[in-house]
Each structure stands twice: as structure tokens, then as C-alpha cells.
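Hey team,

Filing this mostly as a record. A colleague (T.K.) asked me to run one chain through the structure pipeline before their review meeting, and I want the input and output archived in the tracker in case anyone asks later how it was produced. No errors, nothing strange. Just documentation.

Input sequence:
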Amino acid sequence: MDGFSCVCASIDTLEDAVVHAYTCRGESIRQIAVDLGIDRRRATRLLEEAGVSVASRGAGRARPARRVAEPPGFSTVLRRLYEQERLSSKQIAALFEIPERRVRTRLRQAGIAARPRGGLDRADRHKIDVAALAYLHDECALSLLEISERLQAPYQSTLRTAHDAGVAVRFGGNHAESSDGVELISALYEDEAVLETLRRFGIPLVPPGRPVWERFPSPVVLTREALDALYTDCGLSALQIEMITGQAGATIIKALSRAAIARRAPGGRSPFWYRWRTKQESASVSVPGKHSGAEVP
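Output structure:
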């Protein structure tokens, strides 16, 4: 009977039925009254006359445990399913037939950082083969737009993957002889204004080579002052800020609006790129005629 052990040998009277429903089935007095078609006060009186201790209304009563045993080494299994297999807490709960809240509690107890709910997690973005991207970009001299079309991937995802992997993205770069480019993350860390800002706000320097969600398992919490310094003073774009903080570009754009930080006009390159290009030209490392197009935002 729903997990309750019935102790009633027989039910001969209305009082027996009320006692059976209350003590054996764990039903509330209200439900008993509805099921038996009697007044709630009468159901309470019958219980009291039978010597049953009735809990005060609304206090609730202990229910028999229906806890499903967790498998041995559940924390290890949970970490693999959640972090490596990328299952959601809801999917894990359904797999083991346990409440989702227990899964999330076990995540906290195991020190596993919970992903945000919904389908906008950084790790759930479009996956792109880095080796194929690098080959098409370096060996076949295709632009990132052409690569995104070839791989049937969003352009922004292709661009982000290239920067994550440390690919020297060309400015335009549709021809093999147009081979110069920039490794965005390295260029950001070499910029004096950016470097000073990161040090001032205690933001760590994490080299490229892995997806942003692996480089920053927990995105850097940006204060209004830090965000304003990176966007306004350093002239970085939302994508560039994402590359060195782990915060998603869309989140950064929303944070700019909430912080009432004046946005630059859409289109064109960020001030950082003009500063970077000026530095390259002053150092005589760029060749005239090789910077047509707009590959890097």
C-alpha cells in the first residue's frame, strides 16, 4: 500500500476504516473525510476515540522513507556523467530515479560547480574540429567565413574556436601569400593597457589552447569598474573580453547595458585592433597590401 505496512487485520466499522487510512496508508484527515464521505471533524473524533494521536492541523506527519539507494562511488559516477558526459542534473536524476534536488545537493557536496540551467551553457556551444579548422585556414588559406561554410558551422563559433586554439587568424586571408595574422589571446596579454587592467583587478592570465569553458571553469566575476576599464579604457569588444575572462559575450553585452556603460556604434573593429595595428606597423612587422578585408572583429 504505497510503501506502508498495513497492520489492520480486518476493517469492520467506520472507525476501523478511518484508523486504517490514517495510520496504515498515511492519508490526511482531509483526504480521509473526502474518501469516506464524512465530515473532517467526525474523522478526527473517531481517531481520538480509537486512541490514535492526531497531529495538529498543518503540522504534517512523518512519512515512510522511500529513498532510493545510491550506487557505490556515486560522487565519482556523478562527476563523470556531469562533467565529461555533460548530462544535466535532470537527466542524471531520471537515470537513477532520484529527485533532481538530491543530484544538485550531491554536486555541491562533491565540490562540482553546477552549470547554469537552460541551453545557453558555454560548453554546449557548437563544437568545431580544431584540426580541420587549422588545416583549412593555414594549409588551404581559406577565410574563416569560407571555413564556417565548409564546416557548416556558425561564423561566430568558428571565429571563437580559432581564437581559443591560438590560431593566428588572418585579416582577410583568402590567399596563401596573405599569411600574416594575429593570435588574439596572446595579443591581448601583450597589450600594456590590457595587462595593467588585468593585474589591477586580479584577473588571471590563462594561455590559449583549450575552449574558453575549460580555460575558465568559473567565469571571472566582473565588477562595473573592471568591465568599464576593459571595454572603455582598453577598447576591447565583448568577444575579446570573453577570451580573457570566460564570461560569455552575450552576458557581457547585457552587463554593459545594466551598468549603463556607453556602447560603441555597431560595426567596424574595436579600438584595441587599431592600437595593435599601429604597434605592428611601428615595429615594421607588417607588409603593405596584406591587410585588406575584415577577418578579425
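Quick notes for T.K.: The CA atoms of residues 33 and 40 lie 5 Å apart. Strands lie at 169-170, 181-182.
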